[in-house]
Amino acid sequence: MCGVSGEIRFDGARPDVAAVERMTDRLAARGPDGRGIWSQGAVALGHRRLKIIDLSESGAQPMTDADAGLTGVFNGCVYNYRELRRELRALGHRFFSSSDTEVVLKAYRQWGTECVDHFAGMFVFAIVEHASGRVVLGRDRLGIKPLYLAPGPGRLRFASSLPALLAGGGVDSSLDPVALHQYLSWHATVAAPRTVLNGVRKLPPATVRVIEPDGSHTDRRYWQPSYTRRPEHAGMGAGEWRDAVLERLRTAVRRRMVADVPVGVLLSGGLDSSLIVALLAEEGQRDLATFSVGFESEGGEQGDEFAYSDLVAERFGTDHHQLLVPSDRVSTALDGAVAAMSEPMVSHDVVAFHLLSELVSKEVSVVQSGQGADEVFAGYHWYPDLADAARADEPERYAEVYFDRSHAELAGVLRPEMLPDRDVSAAFVREHMAEPGAQSALDAALRLDTHVMLVDDPVKRVDNMTMDWGLEARVPFLDHELVELAAACPPELKLAQGGKGVLKDAGRAVLPREVVDRPKGYFPVPAIRHMAGPVLDRVREALSAPEARARGVFRDEYVARLLAAPDDHRTRRGANALWQVALLEIWLQTHGIG
User: Which residues are involved in binding L-glutamine (predicted)?
Assistant: First the structure.
């Protein structure tokens, strides 16, 4: 797990190595164990290394395969790298390291851009062909690893985080009104390729981009489940689906134990993370390190779920670590979490993940996390409403149950110059749901949530917060083969038992029933949800700052109304409206965006 950066010139000039060095240094937290810079011709690459596989210097990056004429940087983990290494050896390739990075280079030499079809894992890579000057960028199927792009005059820069691109300089930091519309509609999600800044874009998930020396490029989207019932699953009953899901999850968890360092688990006590612990115990893991975080109660709201995580830890004999965060620590930790954000994120558990990652990173360098199960297996409370819609009516129903605000409501939130003249967020949903595949209304909703909303909200959240402490988070519920299986699973099996029915059936085979059949929990951070003392002070400070007034994104009367009653204004989905507005401004100020 690492941070990558680079610059490609298209105008005959040499790359700005100093800018690449600044970007690379800004990524130091993602890779505290090593630093490397490489430059040749029109390309410069930078890398920060977190040692997980091949702890020797043979695994250092940027890595060059002189025989093949390739140099590359890589972030992530190819879990099947050992199998691929054996296959590539049989094809005549020789290896000088035991790293998965070298497997990526050899795989590109063997299969070209189709190498990604052979990888099981989470990854971003940039590979330079010395002879042609061509640069190839690739991102994993579910977008678990990020890659940000900043075009400029005669050049393209890229990095693992948006703040790293800002450190390089020369970025258009004006706000993108379409992205802002999405941010305020979708609980702070901004879909690839956009970000809230006009000058920064994201390489979409499951995409290989080939960039020619003249700056032209071609994209290949190499993976997308169909979300239809498949012939090979015809006739399968609920029990067979349960067994198939459990077996595929076993494989996903087993794959993510590949490392040359210990691997722990973020244990919330919910079904998803508890399943991971149970399956690792089945694999023979002993003294597995598990980690839970909770917060002081606030406004009558319970701030921890330790009763459940303790139950799982005791049942499977884990080496359990518990972190109880006092409310005053939330406000002091807020700015650090915002600084770690590549994009503004409003979910309350951002601060929780940042604090938990600080604790965990002192014990282990790799953890497994239960992120993604709710989107993949239909665990959220709004899915039954979506499933009741006719296929043609699904986009409108989705907006009703999922959007924070309507386009009409945004007219009272944003200043006129920041509001697009049409409902661009609803249009995106309609276009996505109109794509081929997705047999039912629920299939269309799960496809959108898994491949768009999940990528640019919870997945990005976990990556940013963990990597800010040099901690690698692996997400077995986003194993691409498990996602394919879940996409083919009949909707009624996923919706059963209040959501995630097929996964709950799998859970009962290995977990205490009180963990499986408990009410669904959410990661509570009461001090933010209820705008308590110091957090509210920070919000007022940000919104009254000269930068906020000069920026003029929100209508003054709207902000004044929120500040007059900080805890009274909620979005359709129940989020604190003031927090959503303030977080954007705090993020912009934290990252020096005027």
Answer: 100
266 among annotated binding-site residues = yes
Q: Is the pLDDT assigned to residue 297 strictly greater than 70? A: no
Cα radius of gyration (the chain): 23
From the list 201, 196, 195, the residue with the least C-alpha distance to 152 is: 201
- Structural tokens at position 83: 């199998």
100 is an annotated ligand-binding site residue: yes
In the chain, the domains with their CATH numbers are 2-221 (3.60.20.10), 231-324+342-376+444-524 (3.40.50.620), 531-590 (no CATH)
Pairing assessment for the beta strands 135-139 and 121-129 based on DSSP bridges: antiparallel
Query: Quick one: which of 365, 366, 423, 359 has its CA closest to 396?
Result: 423
Phi, psi of 250, deg, nearest 5: -55, -45
pLDDT in tens, 352-392: 889 889 989 999 999 999 999 999 999 999 999 999 999 99
Structure tokens belonging to residue 154: 């005669």
Residues 6+ apart with CB under 8 A from 66: none
Nearest to 293 by CA among 337, 259, 249, 252: 337
pLDDT tens track for 349-360 = 888 889 889 989
Residue pointed to by tokens 């691929």:
84
**Alpha carbons 141 and 221: distance in angstroms, whole number:** 9
What SS3 class is residue 559? Answer: helix
369 marked ligand binding residue: yes
How many Å separate Cα 291 from the centre of its chain? Answer: 20
CA distance linking residue 276 with residue 311, whole number of Å: 14
CA distance 188 to 460: 12
Residues labelled as active-site residues: 2
Using CA atoms in the order 68, 72, 75, 79, what is the torsion angle rounded to 10 degrees?
0
pTM to 2 decimal places? 0.96
Q: Is residue 293 a known part of a binding site? A: yes
